[in-house]
């Protein structure tokens, strides 16, 4: 399996779909499914029945998984960039293709 180019905690930009252009932080990566969950993007509503824990019930807004190919890592200027791997000081690090900056996290 290839190394993950997008990881939890990265800032990403949505490239296509109804949320195109929006940015958010990665909450979860699902590599088996090729999906990713981004905070505040691809929000779905779930209708909840009243239960003992939640006697009111109601409508919850939850970030749903989306295809990992629809997002790109945000560069320091907020624009999308591709990611490549380089070896620096014997360590494999992620590098933004546009700026050449190393990506923390």
From TrEMBL:
<dbReference type="InterPro" id="IPR014722">
    <property type="entry name" value="Rib_uL2_dom2"/>
</dbReference>
<feature type="domain" description="KOW">
    <location>
        <begin position="5"/>
        <end position="32"/>
    </location>
</feature>
<dbReference type="InterPro" id="IPR005825">
    <property type="entry name" value="Ribosomal_uL24_CS"/>
</dbReference>
<dbReference type="Pfam" id="PF17136">
    <property type="entry name" value="ribosomal_L24"/>
</dbReference>
<dbReference type="Pfam" id="PF00467">
    <property type="entry name" value="KOW"/>
</dbReference>
<dbReference type="GO" id="GO:0005840">
    <property type="term" value="C:ribosome"/>
</dbReference>
<dbReference type="InterPro" id="IPR008991">
    <property type="entry name" value="Translation_prot_SH3-like_sf"/>
</dbReference>
<dbReference type="InterPro" id="IPR005824">
    <property type="entry name" value="KOW"/>
</dbReference>
<dbReference type="InterPro" id="IPR041988">
    <property type="entry name" value="Ribosomal_uL24_KOW"/>
</dbReference>
<keyword id="KW-0689">Ribosomal protein</keyword>
<comment type="subunit">
    <text>Part of the 50S ribosomal subunit.</text>
</comment>
<comment type="function">
    <text>One of the proteins that surrounds the polypeptide exit tunnel on the outside of the subunit.</text>
</comment>
<keyword id="KW-0687">Ribonucleoprotein</keyword>
<comment type="similarity">
    <text>Belongs to the universal ribosomal protein uL24 family.</text>
</comment>
<dbReference type="InterPro" id="IPR003256">
    <property type="entry name" value="Ribosomal_uL24"/>
</dbReference>
<comment type="function">
    <text>One of two assembly initiator proteins, it binds directly to the 5'-end of the 23S rRNA, where it nucleates assembly of the 50S subunit.</text>
</comment>
<dbReference type="InterPro" id="IPR057264">
    <property type="entry name" value="Ribosomal_uL24_C"/>
</dbReference>
<keyword id="KW-0699">rRNA-binding</keyword>
<protein>
    <recommendedName>
        <fullName>Large ribosomal subunit protein uL24</fullName>
    </recommendedName>
</protein>
<keyword id="KW-0694">RNA-binding</keyword>
């Amino acid at each position: 399996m290839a190394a993950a180019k997008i990881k939890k905690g990265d800032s990403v930009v949505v490239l296509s779909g109804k949320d195109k252009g929006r940015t958010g932080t990665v909450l979860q990566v699902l590599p088996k499914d090729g999906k990713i969950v981004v905070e505040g993007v691809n929000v779905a509503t779930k209708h909840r029945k009243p239960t003992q824990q939640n006697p009111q019930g109601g409508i919850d807004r939850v970030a749903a998984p989306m295809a990992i190919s629809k997002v790109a890592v945000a560069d320091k200027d907020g624009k999308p960039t591709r990611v490549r791997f380089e070896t620096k000081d014997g360590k494999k690090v992620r590098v933004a293709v546009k700026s050449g900056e190393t990506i923390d996290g």
